[in-house]
């Protein structure tokens, strides 16, 4: 469901963009609340191959699941964007059931004709690795992926880092990671990024993700990135 709101609530340290009300953002909380064997069904990668419909995601060492982190953070992002007048839609309806495959999420986003697509994830890297990284499709498969998506990734990187969240020290480069293996990014016809907010296997990152205050910090940073990109794009569709 697309949600709109008229009240203005400004995340810390972000000025309210004046031209983003009425824009549309598709929010994808990564993974599913539950899974079965159907997630192994093969779906298109967007580059001629196939991959699993979905994966179960990762978790912190204490068992806090990625899908729960992404869901909670996505709801916070949706609330803040709605308060800025941005219309939103989610890729899954809850954090308890089986959700759509990765290609179905991309198709749903494309059908909405959004101004931006935000996929929220958390990584499961080496314990010594810390920080976020922003994924975008590379090499690009269309002009949107070649231009606006890269601009979106850079704005998000800058806003995440400016919010005090460190860029990854174990993957990508300076908080950015162009890659060809993510179906959602490959199939994107509108500006799309996938943000790995941090490393669930790292003690500092996992402590942030496991706390409500930490998830709010991630959400505020993500909203700054989305709003900054939207403000650079002009009028609502």
From TrEMBL:
Q: Which keywords does UniProt give here? A: Hydrolase, Signal
Asked if the keyword Hydrolase belongs to this entry, the reply reads yes
Q: Which residues form the MurNAc-LAA domain?
A: 106-227
Q: Which Pfam families does the UniProt record give?
A: Amidase_3
**Signal peptide, first to last residue:** 1-15
Q: Name one GO biological process term.
A: peptidoglycan catabolic process
GO CC annotations? outer membrane-bounded periplasmic space
Gene Ontology terms for molecular function: N-acetylmuramoyl-L-alanine amidase activity
| NCBIfam families (alphabetical) | amidase_Rv3717 (NF038140)
Q: What is this protein called?
A: N-acetylmuramoyl-L-alanine amidase
